Amino acid sequence: MKHAPIRHRLEQAAYLGIRGLLRALPHAAARGVGRRLGGLAAILDRRHLRVAEKNLALAFPDLSAAERRAHARECFRHFGGAVCDLISADRFDLVELCRRITYEGWEHVEAAESAGKGVFVLGSHLGYWELSGRPIGLYRGTVHAVARPADNPHFEREIRRLRERFAYAVIPKKGAARRMIQILRGGGRVGILIDQRVQPREAIAVPFFGRP
User: Fold this and answer.
1) Cα–Cα distances in angstroms (integers) from residue 63 to residues 38, 48, 58, in the given order
2) Terminus-to-terminus CA distance in the chain, angstroms?
């Protein structure tokens, strides 16, 4: 809901409580807390749990209903862990954050940049995606990430702060094409998570698990 100020305030209060808890705990505990919160969300948010199960049925038709339910719940737990890991990692400075991440495949970034035409950094909502792209920005230069603004304006300010603190610059998803082209023409880096459907006028539909 984009225009729900009371709900947005309540969500902000809940977020601030979780952030305070995570800051009081060692960082190593953040993922465990997040997984528990994600498990709770799977119980409370029945609508999105059903969406996840429906998508799993399309992608893996051989799975039983029970297996799809188990995978969907695990997705919620993983998402909770990823979010809390991101919030907790806000305590680290630049040097400490880099020390905690293992880097592989730099030769691919260097090869792409050597053409001097700008670079697309493509990823998806797998693993700990909010942190995974940061090394490129920290070591190679700013990554301009395309993102849909959150419906809750309080969340949007906080998410933008977390993203822009280290190496990301956010491009709002709506009407992003012009800005993306400008950055690429200037030899910059554009980051996109490609596992999301967009409006037909903004992209070319391609098959994904047999669906456009």
Assistant:
1) 22, 19, 10
2) 26
- C-alpha–C-alpha distance, residues 190 and 187, integer Å: 10
Amino acid occupying residue 212: P
Average pLDDT, the chain: 89
Say how far apart CA 47 and CA 123 lie, in whole Å: 26
Contact assessment for residue 129 and residue 82, using Cβ atoms and an 8 Å cutoff: yes
pTM of the predicted structure, to 2 decimals: 0.84
CA distance 171 to 191: 9
Query: Does residue 1 carry a pLDDT above 70?
Result: no
For the cut 70, the answer to whether the pLDDT of residue 25 exceeds it is yes
H or E element in which residue 189 lies: strand 189-193
Pick from 20-24, 155-159, 197-201: least confident: 197-201
198 or 103, higher pLDDT: 103
Q: Extract the tokens encoding 207.
A: 């098959």
Strand partners, 171: 146
Residue matched to tokens 């050597």: 114
The secondary structure of 126-174 as a DSSP string is -SSHHHHTHHHHHHH--EEEEEPPPSSHHHHHHHHHHHHHTTEEEEEST
146 contacts 191 by C-beta, under 8 angstroms? yes
The b/e string for 64-87 (b: 16+ C-beta within 10 A; e otherwise) is: eeeebbeebbebbbbbbbbbbbbb
Looking at residue 45, what DSSP letter applies? Answer: -
Residue 168 pLDDT level (bands cut at 50, 70, 90):
confident
